Amino acid sequence: MSGAGETPPTGGASMRLDKWLWHARFFKTRTLAGDVAAGGRIRLNRRPISKPGQAVRVGDVLTFPQGPHVRVIEIQALSDRRGPAAEAQALYRDLDPPALKRADPDAPPAPAPAAKRDAGAGRPTKRERRQLDRLKPDPGDP
Fold first, then answer.
1. How far apart are alpha carbons 130 and 109 in whole angstroms?
2. What CATH number does the domain located at 15-99 have?
């Protein structure tokens, strides 16, 4: 008979998605990993998922946003603990390293730096702030 915290046997070892992302150090907290999964921004083997408790196994491919990059990761191992970074890097294989994207000449340009104000100019008025917001790119745009 299985206990409350155990998962039923499925033929292979599995782990919760949010827990694996936290163990692999993609997110600082398990809550953040769960929020990304619950927001539907993670794909598991090309299928969008919306549950942080989704089971992942060795060989699964995850696609998810992390900062300005989209990460494509193949799960190589499952872990019982959140260990040091070197141990976490052994849990996955990066199928599309972000460093290669930056070196790609066809990659989109880096975002523009934040607008600067003259010293002593004070806080922007509501009208000035709206004008500045129109100049900034929308963070939700890819």
1. 24
2. 3.10.290.10
Question: pLDDT tens-digit profile of 49-102?
Answer: 989 889 999 999 999 888 778 889 999 999 889 989 899 999 999 887 655 545
For residue range 123-136, list pLDDT tens digits in order.
888 998 898 888 87
Tokens representing residue 37 in the block: 């999964």
Model-wide pTM > 0.70: no
DSSP one-letter string for the chain: ---TTPPPP-SS--EEHHHHHHHTTSSSSHHHHHHHHHTT-EEETTEEE--TT-EE-TT-EEEEEETTEEEEEEE----SS---HHHHHTTEEESS-HHHHHH-TTSPPPPPPPPP--TT--SPPHHHHHHHHHHSPPTT--
d(CA 11, CA 78): 15
